[in-house]
Specification:
alpha/beta, 7-stranded mixed sheet, 41% helix, binds pyridoxal-5'-phosphate
Amino acid sequence: MIYLDLAATTPVRREVIEAMWPYLTSEFGNPSSQHELGFGSAQALVDARRTVARLLGTRESRVVFTSGGTEADNLAVKGIGLANPRGRHVITSAIEHPAVIESCRYLQRFHGFRVTALGVDSQGLVDLAALADALTEDTTLVSVMYANNEVGTVQPIEQVVALAGSHGVPVHTDAVQAAASFALNLTELGVDALSISGHKLGAPKGVGVLATSMRVELEPTIHGGGQEGELRSGTENVAGAVALATALEYSRREHTAGTDGVDPLAAWRERTMDFIGRVLAAVPDAVLTGHPTNRLPGHASFCFPGTSGESVLLGLGESGIACSSGSACVAGKDDPSPVLLAMGFQPEVAQTAVRFTFGIATTVQELGQVADAVAATVSSLRSRFR
Ligand code: PLP
């Protein structure tokens, strides 16, 4: 099978399994236990937190391990919103992951917040003028994703931070998709909160991180025994934390130029552009969704008018190719993607979306094979639909 659905989830890296294995077997202690097995687990957690803090550019005390990206987003939006509500106004974008959108809605429904959802242009870039207009000294938080999961567009976060900063408003960015491609650093970006998820990076499902700056406080969303500095109660997922730290470290290493001087990220980006070009050339009327250049490497998303995304997926599946019809997180829903609708696509076109997401190791040959299969599948479906 050619797996082009890495934005949905990634296989666990061998090195990650090796690193986490002891904490599932011989070193299985509860980090709160006052005996040798407990101390070993507690130390593993300290080490994992130190690694994540170093890689994400914050203090160890500002790294909260969560059950994944969804919980990290919930903790960021609700946690910052409730700890320092100011004028109860959150600003987000119309193309956020449901984990952010629904957390904003929660603040609206149960805590009287006003929510501004910024529009985006046809390439998925957030409307910065609307952000400037919406910001006031009373705004609690701006939450804008680093890169979109469905269309791959990378947002101008530095500009978002500059605008929000001029009103003293903290910024959260959902970097769940971006963390696999970019060496993101909280301090360098100037953001106050950043979410990542292990299973998009080569760690298992069920572990994530919310990293914050020293400037924001968090109100916990899960209460109990006070683990994770009182910010996220529950017995810690030690193996998961070790896995996430290891996966983040390996993905950073993978992006660094080797002794041959080849920049792996640039090569990955080039393969992506080449694949996009091949699909657009091979399929008449295919539309690239998202920004043509400001997009995640390894992310190519299209609409194929005159088909349905679902049938293209099934057709490609028969050729041994795994991809997705937009976002796996809202899988099972047949509605056209709210992201594409916000970008101005007509519902009948939005329903034809297909997303290919591939890694740094996917070869030109594999991508060529996929482009040929896409052309054949779309052409056969169009002749059937006519
Ligand atoms: N945010 C974005 C942008 C995502 O793409 C996803 C999952 O696909 C999430 C959040 C949720 O992460 P998790 O699956 O770890 O809960």
